[in-house]
Amino acid sequence: MTGHPTETAANLDQEERQLDALRSTYPGWDILIDHKNPGQRWVAELHRPMTRQLASAGVLPRPAGHQ
Question: What is the pLDDT, as a whole number, of residue 41?
Answer without folding.
Answer: 82
